[in-house]
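Cross-posting from the chemistry board since nobody answered there.

I work mostly on the small-molecule side, so proteins are not my area. We synthesized adenosine-5'-triphosphate and want a rough idea of how it might sit in this target. Sequence and SMILES are below. Is it possible to get a predicted 3D structure of the two together?
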Amino acid sequence: MAQEPLIELEDVSFKYDRNWVVENVNMTINEGQFVGLVGPNGSGKSTLIKLMLGLEKPVRGHIRLFGKEVKKFNRWQEVGFVSQKANSFNSGFPATVYEVVRSGLVSRMNMFQLFNHSHKDKVLATLREVEMEEYAQHSIGELSGGQQQRVFIARALVSDPSLIILDEPTVGVDSEHVTAFYDLLAKLNGERNLTLLMVSHDIGTITSHATHVACMNKTVHFHGSTEDYENMDDETLSLMYGHSLQQLTHNHEGSSL
Ligand SMILES: Nc1ncnc2c1ncn2[C@@H]1O[C@H](COP(=O)(O)OP(=O)(O)OP(=O)(O)O)[C@@H](O)[C@H]1O
């Protein structure tokens, strides 16, 4: 079966005021891929995601989601988004895990529809999928950063999207839970054929879970299978970037570099 392109970027460039932060990016992400997007601080990764989500408009080039120009795209229930700030609820936040996940269904319902049993079952089944069902009635703020991110994955998943975009979701997650979080994403990719695009600073963990890697520093210098990425020697990678490999990724605490 031919894989459909879910995200297509064609010669995309973008600037804030006079500062070009994304330059001539060409990239296609096909159905079923788990793509890790890596690059140094300030290399334009979050901006590229905002462009894909239609939150910023490219100055030049074209972006298509599911074959449609992003400005005309309207099947947003097909696209889930998990940000790095999702896991920052304080302990007093007045919503249960169940309510947070249920809010992911609202975009699918019209305003006169009431939540019914099948919605409840769907929310609980999705929580089970991310191994958080037993926390359904806990307040979201009581959970650890890693548990909160699982809940936000469930909120993104509950409307059965084909694609989830994640912007550094493991920032603030304890290092011992990071691998389990990546394992969950790899499972969703394998079992649901869910397409994933994830910004990550953890090149070691991303390459052991993702099917593809994209390396960005204003432009995308490499985009290919994880295997091809791993077969490149350090010198080739450094040449490609124009600086040392250590600068390729972030230096957030807990990073593997
Ligand atoms: N709203 C904004 N207005 C002006 N400049 C911005 C804005 N957002 C980001 N920038 C700048 O654009 C450049 C790219 O930022 P961006 O956040 O996309 O990079 P990033 O690779 O996601 O960085 P990080 O890994 O540190 O989150 C940076 O120089 C940043 O300072």
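Reply from a structural biologist on the board:
Welcome over. Reading the output above for you: DSSP finds eight helices and ten strands in the chain. The longest strand covers residues 5-16. Happy to explain the token format if needed.
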